[in-house]
Amino acid sequence: MRRLTDDLRHALAADFVLGTMRGRARRRFEALAAGDAELGRVRRQWEAFLTPLADAVPPVAPPARVWRAIEARLAGPRPAPGLWSNLAFWRGGVAALAAACLVIAFALPGLRAPAPAPSSGPMLVAVLMAADQVPRIVVEQPSEGMLQLRMVKPWVDMTQRDLELWVIPKEGRPRSLGVVPWDRDSEVRRAGLDAMLRDGTTFAISSEPLGGSPTGQPTGKVLCSGAIARGRRA
Fold it and tell me: Which phi and psi (to 5°) does residue 90 adopt?
């Protein structure tokens, strides 16, 4: 068997932990992980990262019709019509969808899974996607008063422009969180940060003149954006 690359290990482990790997492929992965210490370590790393994010989403109570459909299937030889479409939303379907988006972003070739998250999970997280749906930056709030920005795909050359990070509230105008690097990971720390984030629904990155927006509002092209998913502490 050919040697697994680091990128392939991460992609397979993400697929396995998410649950999108099925049947024979899943059994094959389990056998490989049992004999490949590094693959087993990568799988545990993905489990430590992904599980807190799913746990942070409140469970969704299934409608009564879902239980009736399950009971009907158990009672008879034929499955009830439409059962699987109902089960897709059984107990946390929304959480699974959000987790899937995040895993797909990290499983792209050339990327690495993040270090295992604390047991309580990040306060919030967002994957900022470009118009072509390519992830560019992952924003996390590991603790109060700070944000961490992990550069997924740097821009080629922004030496004549600055990137500015914005939080967009449910109502009202975007709020600037400051200029951030275009080619590396970074952190945002500023007075009143938590209050600025409290009602935010989306992060966005715009291209601005050197030094940032001269108006206090975005003036250049929005390069990427992503909805904010809040953990149990946020």
Answer: -80, 125
DSSP notation for 132-157? TS-EEEEEEE-STT-EEEEESS--S-
215 Rama class: left (phi>0) / alpha (psi -120 to 50) / beta: alpha
Q: pTM for the whole thing?
A: 0.53
Q: CA 50: distance to chain centroid?
A: 9
CA distances from 181 to 35, 164, 205 (A): 41, 9, 11
Report how far apart, in Å, the C-alpha atoms of 109 and of each of 2, 7, 9, 33, 190 are.
18, 6, 10, 20, 34
Structure tokens given for 82? 């439409």
- Cα 186 to Cα 206: distance, rounded to the nearest angstrom: 16
Q: Helices 6-18 and 37-55, interaxial angle, to 10°?
A: 40
Alpha carbon distance 59, 143 (integer Å): 24
Rounded CA separation 17/131 (Å): 28
The radius of gyration computed from the CA coordinates of the chain, to the nearest angstrom, equals: 21
pLDDT tens column, 110-143? 445 554 444 445 688 888 888 888 888 989 998 8
Q: For residue 153, what pLDDT is reported?
A: 87
Q: What top-level class would CATH report for the domain 124-230?
A: mainly beta
Report domain extents, the chain.
Answer: 6-57+92-106, 124-230
